[in-house]
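ok trying this again, last paste got cut off
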Amino acid sequence: MRWALLGLLWLDGFLVGVMALAFLPLHIGSVPFPISAVFAAIANYILLWCSATLTEGFARFGSLIAFMIAFFVLAVGGPGGDVVVPQDLTVFLLLGLGLILPVFAAFAGWLPDTKGDAKPVVAGSGE
């Protein structure tokens, strides 16, 4: 059952990547408004959190790998030369928030173990 749930979380990571790229070129007037980068960061952290409750291994990062696969598949131009990824700095914002923030959270110890118990980080505790 755990592997089926992990598979669904990986599929969700792919869908987060597709949706984040689809809504990345949003504008308010003439100003780019990449709110999908913030939503991608939050969604990827939640997916990583859920994966961490199911496994301790490298498989917990499967949703982030699926996010990257979606990003790079959509970054490749199609047969007509059309590209979904915009050619501006919002792409780096999406990658930075969507990948670096959840990975930082994983290595900072902000994820639960497989029993579902959170590992809080207390300043000055020496842990």
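PB: full thing came through this time. The beta strands are 27-28, 31-32.
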